Amino acid sequence: MVGTSRFVALAASTLVVVGALAGAPAAAADTGQPGTLYVQNVDWCSDTGPGTQDVPFCSVQAAADVVVPGQTVDIVGPPRYGVAVTITRSGTSSEPITFQGVSSDPIGTSAALILPPLLGGTITLSGVHDVHVSNLQLDHTTTDAVDVKGSQGVVLDRLYIAQQGPEDATAATDGVSVDGASSDVTVSRSKIYDSHGNAVQVASGAHDVTVTTNELEGSRYAEIAVSGTATADLTGNTLDDACGPGLTIDGGSSATVENNVFTGVGHGTVCPAPTAPAFSVAADSAASVTADYNAFALDSGRTEYSWGGTGYTTVAAFTAATGQGAHDLDHVGYAYPDATDENSPVIDSADADAPGEPATDVNGAPRVDDPLVADTGTGAHTTYDRGAFERQDTLPMPSGATSSSGIGPLSVSVTPGIGNPGSWGLPLTYTVDFGDGSAAVTDVSGTVTHTYTTPGVYAEKVTVTDANGSGATRTAKVTVGTATPPATSLTVRPEIFQGTVDAGSASLTLDHSDNWELASRTVSWGDASSDSVPVTRGAAGHDYDDEPFRSYLLKLTQTDIFGRTATATATFRPADSYTPLTPPEYDYQGTVKAHGLLDLTSSTLHTDTNGVDAAALRVTVTGGTAGGYLTLYPYGTARPSVSAVNFAAHQTAENGMTVRTGPSGDVYLYNGSAASVSVKVVTAGIFSHAQYGHSYTPVAPVRVLDTRNGTGGVTGPVASGKSITVSVAGTHGIPADAAAVVLDVQTTSTQASGSLTVTSHGIADSAVTTSYWTKGQTVSNLTVVPLADGKVVLHNSSSGSVQLVTDVFGYADATGTGSVYLPSTPTRILDTRNGTGTGGRIAKLGAHQTLKLRFSGVHGIPSSGTTAADLVLTAVSPAAGGYLTAWADGTTRPGTASLDYGTGRTTPNEIMPPVGSDGYVDIYNGGSAAVNVLADQYGAYVAQ
């Protein structure tokens, strides 16, 4: 008989109805029992949470790692993460630790058919004491299902264990293995099938081990194998094996063997010892083993005993030779171990005082007296049956329990039907338990009426019991509704996975506190699509791949089992997350003619992957015979009046910008010069609404390096060809695990023309040239640098020394919970030459004066939730050198610079300043003369 197939069959017949009550509280506000930890596969489970009924653990291991003496771990259904569990925490003798599976009461299903939760892994108890494990189903393949190692005071009760994998597999794995360093271990009322080794194996050195009232079937070797064990109590088991031994004892063991039934039905394909005796005791143990009240139902001629090396085929021969087994029985004549024939001699014939015998059988049925069989047992009770199964009266399933539902308070009436008497013809008593904690009504002879006052789901039970204690129960579900429809709520945010975010996918978190009362849930996503969401789920998701960046109104409509509805709404605006390209991709290098237009294709820019909406570019231009500017903008759109890079004749200039792509992923580059120019384009990263990437967290701008005064640990100019390493993570508000950092690096006191290279420390081939300068020029440039170990390397590529200044503006986080990006078509939002962005006032920004620029709520930027602006800031033809600083309105101006400019040279720089809570950005002119200022908008960062 293959135990695995039996589990599958039982699961198919019971799990559907178990689901009807699974997760339903006794009352809507039930938060669980004090001292109990919960494990349950629900959407809102968390292995880092409190393990309460409201927020249970997802895995048993999470509970095992924190449980303390006296606590119980309730495993409600199969856990989400079915992996091997190692228990290393101990209880005490008065306050043991308990792990128990919790099964609901299925409607109309016999208790014997209710399977416990499937753990989905194996269990190891390592060096523990006073730990109980019960009511779990375990499958195992290449390892033992339960390993007890160096442990004491362990109880394994009501486990269902089945070996998986081919029956001819070579690995000999046990159902339960007790090592030689363990003691005081009990294995009881469990069912272990088809082990490739032994069902229960006890190793040499163990002592005080009890194996009682188990059904052990079809193992390749022995059902119970005891070696070198002192004081083993092996009682009341049904050992079913057609070819291997049911029980072996050797290695100088001492044991009591009573009330066991040895049968010969169950077997697997592989029988390594087809003629093995059913019960074998080696010569080194025979003098220390007591055997009595056992029974045999074997094929004719098979050896029943091997005692001290001598085989015996009958009880009579065995008893005559050894003096043991005076009350043993053979040829007891029933076909299968859990279908004891009426009138079988194993009924009411056991030794009730045999060590370890529990008060109920392997199925939890009580010990009862069969009136059709004479009581020949002994001990405190003469009515115990031998083996793992207690013969019960065959009772008709009682009627009367009827599923019902209604708004509370709800009154129900139950009239137990008087059915046919049981097979024993004994008087019957009917009991009604309404399942709400009220006292059960016993000896029912008519109609019983009860009023439920607390909303919830209840198991109403009608039980018929005969005079000797056998019983049968019918269960019905009663649902008591709340006076008003259950309220509903939802929250929405982008989908987060392993520290990254898919900003174009909405992740809904649904209120789950009253899901027992719900019949259906529907979510309308605002884009003409909708989904039905199972009421047992606490989350739902949706992708907005086709129409990003607009706002969607999401609506949840829930209907309860009484037809009442409730709704909740939320707004979601898909956006982009950032993925750096490491190493950066050098995409284009060539010449663009005067006033020429270059199509940077998606394949060139690496923007041809799923859902890319913008590219983080670094553009270097070398002017020809005339100065000018470059404009980059989405392919297929009209050229905006903005400039990304400004340059003088024969000057090399560089700037970064995030450019929205066209629908095909292309970007236009326009040369606004009267002369041809040389252009180099580098893609540093991509922004996508359909890929997981990083979110962004702005910080108040802070200076982390200034070689002029020693800030950052380096004092003095950086020599030609030399590098310095700057730690930027783990300080100044940047987390140690930041994925990337946004830096503005300034070069000043330049002794010769040259360039600056920025490299991610610890990332090969990550160098990017960020700035070019001429002798004496001060240049600043913003760059996003991926981080491996929290450090960046700045390299002076000029022939003279330079002073370096570095400011931090934010970071790409490793949690996915920061801000996400909304790219926009480049738009000029500030021009002091014509009054754009100043309320119409046409005037330069005065020396040491501040301009307040509105950013949120205009030009397509959301009116709330904006955390940072993505701008190109430009100082136009300054009369004197200086700098501009941008920061969040309403906060203190930082001691940093966003743009350094020189006399007479129009200078742009990408900036990413935080935005004030009022939606404004402040811009301060730190120069000695007034200057015209431009700001071109490329996008915005918004909170999730």
Overview of this structure, please?
With 944 residues, the chain is mainly beta. The strands form twelve sheets. The protein has a 16-stranded parallel sheet that branches. The longest helix has 19 residues, at 3-21. Mean pLDDT is 90; it is low at 1-32.
Outline the secondary-structure elements.
Layout: H1 3-21, E1 36-40, H2 60-64, E2 72-76, E3 85-87, E4 97-102, E5 123-126, E6 129-140, E7 146-149, E8 152-163, E9 176-178, E10 183-188, E11 191-193, E12 200-202, E13 207-212, E14 215-217, E15 224-227, E16 230-235, E17 238-240, E18 247-250, E19 255-258, E20 261-263, E21 279-281, E22 289-292, E23 295-297, E24 305-307, E25 310-312, H3 315-322, E26 329-330, E27 404-407, E28 410-414, E29 428-433, E30 448-452, E31 456-466, E32 471-481, E33 490-497, E34 500-510, E35 518-524, E36 530-532, E37 539-543, E38 552-560, E39 565-572, E40 577-592, E41 597-600, H4 602-605, E42 612-622, E43 628-634, E44 645-647, E45 652-660, E46 667-671, E47 677-688, E48 696-706, E49 723-727, E50 740-748, E51 754-760, E52 768-773, E53 779-786, E54 791-796, E55 803-812, E56 820-831, E57 850-854, E58 866-876, E59 882-888, E60 899-901, E61 907-911, E62 920-925, E63 932-942
Parallel strand pairs: 1-2, 2-4, 3-5, 4-6, 5-7, 6-8, 7-9, 8-10, 8-11, 9-12, 10-13, 11-14, 12-15, 13-16, 14-17, 15-18, 16-19, 17-20, 18-21, 19-22, 20-23, 21-24, 23-26, 27-32
Antiparallel strand pairs: 24-25, 28-30, 29-31, 31-32, 33-34, 34-37, 35-36, 35-38, 38-39, 40-47, 41-46, 42-45, 42-47, 43-44, 43-46, 48-55, 49-54, 50-53, 50-55, 51-52, 51-54, 56-63, 57-62, 58-61, 58-63, 59-60, 59-62
